[in-house]
Amino acid sequence: MSSTKTYKIVIAETAPIILSGIVSCLKNIKDFHPSIIEVDSSESLFDSIVSDSIDLLIVNPTFGGLLHPGEIRKSSLNPDIKIFAIEISKLNRATLALYDGHLHVTDDLSEIRNKILAAIKLENDETDEKESLSSREKEIISHVVKGFTNQEIADKLFLSVHTVMTHRRNIARKLQIHSATGLTIYAIVNKIVDLSEIKL
Fold first, then answer.
1. Beta-sheet strands, E only, within the chain
2. By three-state DSSP, how is residue 3 classified?
3. Residue 135: left (phi > 0), alpha (psi -120 to 50), or beta?
4. H/E run at residue 60
5. What is the largest CA-CA distance in the chain?
């Protein structure tokens, strides 16, 4: 992704090592221009959300006690805000399903880049429709044409079902393909899957 747009990102984490690590990773993503706000209290978090149009919130689910992404979305100036969980220890599926994605403390820079750009791409305008698919989108196409359900794909890729469905809508919009048959043909022609991998 090459863009001159500056993305407003809030990071809500009280552990300075984790916070500075995420900030460093975001600043090292090529062709990505983040404007980062670091917050250390629930009051400053909500002040940021209600006073500015934030593109992405990266937050520790235990931040400020019990944090509910639904409440943040309702309060946000940007109705399309993306909310990522910071995963330090394994989160249960119900918790992950509340978020648009997650960053695990063991993710390398490439994984963080792919996750962030996949989320941000969902906000791009019509001019980005001709961009090539991300590696995550190709991964999802591969699983879809092999017959996996949204839940199975979510489990395999450690995503929420909501995130998988959002990726699928984004893929359909970018490719202008709205049928399983069309997607299968696209996947074979573009060598995303081999014909032998598909159940006919």
1. 6-12, 33-39, 56-59, 82-87, 101-104
2. coil
3. alpha
4. none
5. 55
pLDDT over 50 (residue 200): yes
Phi, psi of 41 (to 5 degrees): -150, 155
- Cα(52)–Cα(156) distance, rounded to whole angstroms? 35
Q: What percent of the chain has pLDDT over 70?
A: 89
CA distance 45 to 198: 46
Would you call 107 exposed, middle or buried from its count of C-beta atoms within 10 A (0-12, 13-18, 19+)? middle
Q: Which residue has the tokens 């919009």?
A: 173
- What sign does the CA torsion over 163, 27, 31, 126 have? positive
pTM above 0.70, yes or no: no
- What mean pLDDT do residues 142-161 have? 92
At residue 103, the 3 state secondary structure works out as: strand
User: Which tens digits make up the pLDDT trace of 13-68?
Assistant: 988 899 999 999 999 888 888 899 999 888 888 888 888 888 999 999 888 765 67
